[in-house]
Amino acid sequence: MINEVRNTVLSILNKNNYGYISPSDFNLFAAQAQMEMFEEAFSAYNKLSVGQNMKQMYEGYGDILQTYEELLEIFNVTKPLSNYLGNVYYSPSLITTGDSSYLISRVICYPTQYAFGSNTTVVSGQLVDAAASFNTLGIVAGDVVVNSTTNQIAQVIQVVSSTVININNDIFTIPGEGFAIYKASSAVEAEKITQDKLVLLNTSLLTASSVLFPTYSLQGDKITVMPPSYRLIGQVVMNYFRYPLAPKWTYINLLGGEPVFDQTQPDYQDFELPIDYEYKLVTKILEYAGMSIRETEVAQFGMAQQAHEEPTLSVQQ
């Protein structure tokens, strides 16, 4: 979609010789436009939810709330947290989980670990450990398998034998990757507490964190989970909304010619918004481009086209 958006933007700019935006400028505008649409979706969802509770929303084909739910679900992920030290974990980031968290939904802890080890053979849709005894551990479908090397997660489909488990996600790609298996039915949700209450709550037997009633607190890029027994790799999993990846229009240079789109480049990244956001992205990027090249008509055109969408976007204002 990113190439179609760029072509449309350049076509509108070139129509009246307004100017030209470089690929680097376009990528900056595209990232900002996508981020703005992403944040507006949360605001719109909140306002539409209020309207639904007040019986002011249509159902069926007129259910706009469902559209925003499906959009936000694109960015909803569940990943194990990486250990920093003991029961202190890193918050999601590009380094630890491959993305950054915009909004934490919940933190899940698994008190019961079935097994841990390393895979010995790579088979699609399976965890294979020649030294394991999976069929004697009580593992059942739905239990959680964590790749402790790559921080990926899957669920058990079936215990095939003492050394083989079928899983619903290909999280093991090379031999020797670490794994841990946790009992899904033992999962408990950790309660968030603020730093100023952390010490006070844990000094009382009545309010102190326990294995069945864990808590977590945030401080900088770290998450502390209590009690301290929650320290195993893959034992703490976070469900959160991640930020969208920054779009990048990649290209190759032709000798004496314009840059040509090339999506085979390793740093290529398309928009993560659905195709129906293409029009909105074009108008928003035109607004940014108009301000950049100091053409008020372009900026006004972009803003006017967004205002034209007022019946749809009024909840976002």
Topology:
Blueprint: H1 2-15, H2 23-53, H3 64-73, E1 76-80, E2 83-85, E3 88-90, E4 101-109, E5 113-118, E6 126-128, E7 144-147, E8 152-159, E9 164-167, E10 178-182, E11 188-192, H4 195-202, E12 215-219, E13 222-226, E14 236-242, E15 251-253, E16 259-261, H5 278-292, H6 296-308, H7 310-313
Helix pairs in contact: 1-5, 2-3, 2-5, 5-6
What would your notes on this structure say?
With 317 residues, the protein is α+β, with helices and mostly antiparallel strands. The protein folds into 2 domains: 2-74 and 245-316, no CATH class; 78-242, no CATH class. Helix content is 30%, strand content 25%. It is built from 7 helices and 16 strands. The strands form 3 sheets. It has an 8-stranded mixed β-sheet, with no helix packed on it. A hairpin with a 2-residue loop joins strand 2 (83-85) and strand 3 (88-90). Helix 2 packs across helix 3 (64-73), helix 2 (23-53) packs across helix 5 (278-292) and helix 5 packs antiparallel against helix 6. The longest helix has 31 residues, at 23-53. The two termini are 26 Å apart. 27% of the residues are buried.
